[in-house]
């Protein structure tokens, strides 16, 4: 307990036991420490007495005006002025630090000071993803990569997660963890999984957080759960006993694996500062459209929240931005550039972008599509990592349609540099061997010479696939049906325009969420009318609003002669399936991977995917 007290600068009552930390009374249990921090609407200190009553051992807060009604528990409540501060970079000799276990171009370690972060590391020191330096005593944490954008962040973060794991699919102790809209996922390393070099993806777990972006307490809870699960699954009883005997002050039995956490970061999370305690190694602002105006109130505030992702990056990190992500003439962006350097730009039309991608047309579903990434800027320590100093790399994949290739490009750029430069020296280490190295990324004949490798595309077909509910083409039924999570006008335009030419007719089914941004409703219907031949407007989490009112909002200013209204989403899908012929496509938008429907405050099970299979079984 001494170390935890030293980090916070307090002295707890005798015999205090702390086993977990939380900032919500919903997760308080016996021996919890409760953190009463500023929330979106109220200060968490309001719930401190309730937390103690629920079993919390102690509580800390930063509210100078807090008054305790129950004087019997005053000795369990501690005021800490700087507990909610953002992280800052410090020198190596500073106490209460962590450093990043990042795989970067630089050998220079980045030391971060933040009381809450260090406290959570100390509390979870037995977690296999958190370690301590024998030299300095500082805690070591994984590398975080963050993705934000109005559209595409789930796909990009998930594909980056797949790329990282596929590159290290040789059974090494490298780990990528995905955290986002789908929940969290990791790859289990186990010798029994022969079919994938000892790796198997777990199911998506949504048990810890209901948000796209968890807060720091939930992130540590996720790491703890993965650590416990992997240790229990992949170690012998004797190894577990040794591991359990290690004290908090010793170097863990399991050294920290080289771990990257690929995480989606929502505008809500950025606005609320959920991740301000964590230093990021790489971040990407992919695009900015118009969404969540019900929360942000104005597009300017929405843009400001998205730009805050760049504040999360440590000094050795990298910042990427889609060159068309934001209007560079906007007041918000000009204010940003007045105090910051321009991030590294990624472009798909502008060849002057720092990183430019040219996609070969046409792009077809089920076919191998190719694209070329050109690097127009120097790369850190390129002479170390690259033999030929190649500026262009060509890739091949079966990702469809075009905007998903855009998402994949962000994934490639954000992952290991070996994907940007696959002819790197690491492919030719003697212990690997040329034949095995080529097998990693190239499907080539043995007579191909080393110097000719760059003339062949890097094959990504076996490495990446889209996440569930993202351009999900249902392949095991006798009809063309696609399910997608698109839920705003911009994503409708991107998606529908990309697939329109592949089919004779599009029948589009979608709805608009209740108690959410009303301004986007007519824009979504307008996009569907523009690209579709028949539109069926249905329910999509109407929540507390009447379905008819939502439809009336969407209809405003639109010609609805080809629009049907069917409130029951299952009936809407059944009706839509009757309208398509062999060369047509039924497009079901809005819910994607979701398996629930919320109407009149009641949440029930519902899956677009399951309904489609019921129809065609």
From TrEMBL:
<dbReference type="InterPro" id="IPR004101">
    <property type="entry name" value="Mur_ligase_C"/>
</dbReference>
<dbReference type="Pfam" id="PF08245">
    <property type="entry name" value="Mur_ligase_M"/>
</dbReference>
<dbReference type="InterPro" id="IPR036565">
    <property type="entry name" value="Mur-like_cat_sf"/>
</dbReference>
<keyword id="KW-0961">Cell wall biogenesis/degradation</keyword>
<dbReference type="GO" id="GO:0009252">
    <property type="term" value="P:peptidoglycan biosynthetic process"/>
</dbReference>
<dbReference type="GO" id="GO:0051301">
    <property type="term" value="P:cell division"/>
</dbReference>
<feature type="domain" description="Mur ligase N-terminal catalytic">
    <location>
        <begin position="25"/>
        <end position="74"/>
    </location>
</feature>
<feature type="domain" description="Mur ligase central">
    <location>
        <begin position="148"/>
        <end position="414"/>
    </location>
</feature>
<dbReference type="GO" id="GO:0071555">
    <property type="term" value="P:cell wall organization"/>
</dbReference>
<keyword id="KW-0133">Cell shape</keyword>
<dbReference type="GO" id="GO:0005524">
    <property type="term" value="F:ATP binding"/>
</dbReference>
<keyword id="KW-0131">Cell cycle</keyword>
<dbReference type="Pfam" id="PF01225">
    <property type="entry name" value="Mur_ligase"/>
</dbReference>
<keyword id="KW-0436">Ligase</keyword>
<dbReference type="GO" id="GO:0016881">
    <property type="term" value="F:acid-amino acid ligase activity"/>
</dbReference>
<dbReference type="GO" id="GO:0008360">
    <property type="term" value="P:regulation of cell shape"/>
</dbReference>
<dbReference type="InterPro" id="IPR036615">
    <property type="entry name" value="Mur_ligase_C_dom_sf"/>
</dbReference>
<keyword id="KW-0132">Cell division</keyword>
<dbReference type="InterPro" id="IPR035911">
    <property type="entry name" value="MurE/MurF_N"/>
</dbReference>
<dbReference type="Pfam" id="PF02875">
    <property type="entry name" value="Mur_ligase_C"/>
</dbReference>
<feature type="domain" description="Mur ligase C-terminal">
    <location>
        <begin position="469"/>
        <end position="592"/>
    </location>
</feature>
<protein>
    <submittedName>
        <fullName>UDP-N-acetylmuramoylalanyl-D-glutamate--2, 6-diaminopimelate ligase</fullName>
    </submittedName>
</protein>
<dbReference type="InterPro" id="IPR013221">
    <property type="entry name" value="Mur_ligase_cen"/>
</dbReference>
<keyword id="KW-0573">Peptidoglycan synthesis</keyword>
<dbReference type="InterPro" id="IPR000713">
    <property type="entry name" value="Mur_ligase_N"/>
</dbReference>
